[in-house]
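Here is one chain, start to finish.
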Amino acid sequence: MVWEGIMINGCTRLHVVANGTMTGQRYIDKVLLPHVRLFRGAVGDKFVFMNDNASCHRTLAVQNCLDSEGIQRLVWPARSPDLNPIENVWDGLGRQVAGRNYPPTNKNTLIRALTEEWDKLPQQLLDNVVRSMVRRVECCITLHGGHIPY
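Its structure:
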């Protein structure tokens, strides 16, 4: 698993989480506390966290951790990758890695290729996908705000 964070005018390094199943507690230990908490501290009170709603991201332990750290989470429908701007970044990153003269042939070369290509992504691309969140959230509110079950 790899993790990164994006924002206007910046991003985190690409972080590789070692082998194994990602559980809620492992997510807390390997991603939230060492990286998201620090990123939130650097950004300040306007920080809003968005993840991809994987089952390990939705555990009670994760919610308690986010609450205890004062990390505001963007609530959005599960299994909605079209609403998550990082999916566009992942697509571009994947295309860059696949288009390399010497594509990765094992885990180590894949990690190196992902890291090198991540470092080359233009900040303008990241800024554009972050700015697209306004449209995505408005779309989400429009699509999901008018449904009243009866």
